[in-house]
Amino acid sequence: MSTDVPLRPPRESLDPRVRSWWRVHGLVWPLLLAVVLAVLGLLIPAIGWFLPLAGAVAVVGLLVALLFPAYWYRVHRWELTHDAVYTRSGFVWQEWRAAPLSRIQTVDTTRGPLQQALGLATLVVTTASAKGAVTVAGLDHARAAEIAETLTRATQAVPGDAT
Length: 163
Description:
This protein has helices at 18-43, 50-75, 113-118, 141-157, and strands at residues 12-13, 77-80, 84-90, 94-100, 104-110, 120-127, 134-140. 46% of the residues lie in helices and 26% in strands. β2 and β3 (84-90) form a beta hairpin. The chain folds into 2 domains: 18-72; 78-157, PH-domain like, CATH 2.30.29.210.
């Protein structure tokens, strides 16, 4: 099997629940920052201008959390073929990756607390590449485990040491 794998658009979309995961992520940090700014603005009158700043941060965070996940869901794609794992991700700068099965070293799944609550997982495919692991965040947990098992079996069948 050749390690020359063409870069092409992946066909599979992420689990639709990933939009909820992105929304919560998009809300948590701006809202925490807004609360800190508001508290500081109330406690220290000299920096009272922190109150409008807190409001602006909260509004921008809310807009990002409501609007961006739908766009990200259309952009983020993945696919597993008999030759490679393909991914496309990003926002302004999009990254397309193709990881040939012959270059895969390890396959893992990870799940944070929010992903566990939503039934999601991240597939992490470590390759013999300076670019690092290929990740597919936002898969159904059972599907991610199935893909990890399939990839593990497939890479064991590929000759070579993945270097």
